[in-house]
Amino acid sequence: MELICVLIMLIKWMIRVSIMVLFGKVVISCWILPILAHRKLKRNGFEGPSPSFPLGNITEMKKIMKAAAAATAVTNGSSSNNLSHDIHSTIFPHFAQWQNSYGKKFVYWLGTEPFLYIADPQLVKKISEAVLGKSWGKPAVFRNDREPMFGDGLVMTEGDNWIRHRHILTPAFNPTNLKAMTKFMVESTTKMLEEWRSLVKSGQSEIEVERQITATAGEIIAKASFGISNCGGGGEALNNLRALQLTLFKNSSYVGVPFSSLFLYPARTLAAKRLGAQIDRLFLSIISNRKMSGSGSGYSDLLSRLIGSEYTGGEALSPREVVDECKTFFFGGHETTALAISWTLLLLATSPDWQRILREEIKEVVGDKDIDFSMLSSLKKMGWVWNEVLRLYPSAPNIQRQAKGDIDLGDIKIPKGTNIWIDVVAMHHDPTLWGDDVNDFNPSRFQHDTIHGGCNHKMGYLPFGFGGRMCIGRNLSSMEYKIVLTLILSTFSLSLSPSYSHSPATLLSLRPAHGIPLILTPLQP
Ligand code: HEM
Asked: Can you tell me the mean pLDDT for 501-512?
């Protein structure tokens, strides 16, 4: 009896000690370590708005964003034919305000996570030269939050694993493989245009293009990556992928606050996990079917290349890793491209001159033939428009890194664990880098300097990131852009609908909050 009492006391004591140890760990990681990091960053000369525990600067950010949204709602009533491309203070009003107080580099806090904000290309150059691509990680808070979307795919993976993934994936984007994707692009765009044509014929000339282009780009990437289309089971898979993305970004404003996914939005966390698991099961079954049908199955998509890939520097990708890469291509690849096309249609709708210039170029390069891969490099002016649209409206409005160790930049020291947030929109709209016409739509700025568009710092234009981690899909994307745009411009003339409201906003990507309604007029009756 006495022994049982002693045992019960011992168990109770152990439970108490465990709770105290857990509590201690939470206090250290959520409170003490952030305070020490804050002091270290201050000692290194980084100023910034004062954080409070446990939200950091989130409350202030929300307040500034709310005030900016109210101000924008008032000005949006004005004529939509005179769009302002000066968008930085609309989409990142908190950064614009803090820049006024602290300059182009400062520290702010998402919950208990410090972020070094950078809108200074010289500092971006320094950090990209300081350590190799593999020594930078991605912020752990975002990796955890977006785990159901990207898993350990290329966008999020780090260190030697990132090198292995990058080596295995790079050949999948070589010109021969890209050329093989042309047919999916032409096929899906032609289908979309047929639907637009019949809508216009039935009397509906106004079409919200952004949603439709995103769906078409989703179909293209799904066919090119893992051979599924909107038909049959493929439609359900695409719906699940889109639902997962919406679920994850509905409530992401408390990322960085300790235990927020558990206590602030548990339903969203569970829904995302459930959808993520459903999608994983679907991809695993596609992979095992492919393996069973063997190499002679005739598939030429990205998935079949990854399944058969060999890597001399280490292990090939496991089925789990292949699943994560399929999701990464879908999420990283379709919306970014669709947004570049959609913003282009908006800008062309407000610029009849550039519509005419591009149609003339298409006539010269493509003529009456069907568009093919070999013609794309001759669409030079379309290339300038692509660059200019990605400058004014970069689909990826920021780039993130995390210091995996203390980083010494000479005059500046970045402590281990510091997250880095590079504000691409700020740099693309900075008159000190681009001149007084920074907010004008002027594709000709890329005529003589096709890479930097005349920007006076080579790290001032970063639509696809920088260094070893630069976007792996940029050539695929530019190819899709040219094919889709050529087919649209050869079919319709575009003008802006009076119902368009100019409201660029960020939901991971830079998107039009109320879509892009355009008036489409067929070029041939
Ligand atoms: C207009 C279209 C696109 C834009 C603006 C864009 C932008 C970006 C940016 C800014 C990065 C981060 C680079 C960095 O951290 O330095 C990135 C990385 C990446 N992108 Fe894209 N992207 C586009 C299209 C695509 C496509 C079509 C795919 C694939 C099908 C893709 C797949 C990826 C992947 C896998 C990474 C991670 C690369 C790495 O960390 O090694 N992207 N992209």
From this structure: 91
d(CA 191, CA 338): 16
Q: Which of 334, 464, 508 to mutate to test the pocket of ligand 1 (most atoms within 8 A of CB)?
A: 464
Could you tell me the pTM of the whole model? 0.92
Please choose, from the candidates 453, 523, 436, the residue with its C-alpha nearest in 3D space to the C-alpha of residue 488: 523
**What is the 307 CA–ligand 1 centroid distance (Å)?**
22
| H/E element, 346 | helix 319-349
Show contacts of 48-53: CB within 8 Å, 24+ apart: 48/98, 48/102, 48/106, 48/107, 48/108, 48/109, 48/117, 49/98, 49/101, 49/102, 49/106, 49/108, 51/108, 51/109, 53/112
Structure tokens at 249: 């970004």
d(CA 210, CA 500): 12
| Tokens, residue 462 | 């970063």
Q: What residues form the annotated binding site? A: 471
Q: How far is the CA of 233 from the centre of ligand 1 (A)?
A: 27
Task: Please report the pLDDT score of residue 469 as a whole number.
Answer: 92
What six digits make up the tokens of 326?
């399929």
Q: From CA 484, how far away is CA 61, in angstroms rounded?
A: 38
Q: How many helices (H) and strands (E) does the chain have?
A: 21, 12
Tokens coding 38 = 């804050």
Residues near ligand 1 with C-beta < 6 Å?
A: 154-155, 166, 221, 328-329, 332-333, 336-337, 340, 395-396, 399, 463-466, 469-473, 476-477
Question: What's the pLDDT tens digit per position in 182-227?
Answer: 999 999 999 999 999 999 999 999 999 999 999 999 999 888 887 7
The C-alpha atoms of residue 349 and residue 440 are separated, in whole angstroms, by: 15
287 or 397, greater pLDDT: 397
Instruction: Give percent of the chain above pLDDT 90.
Output: 54
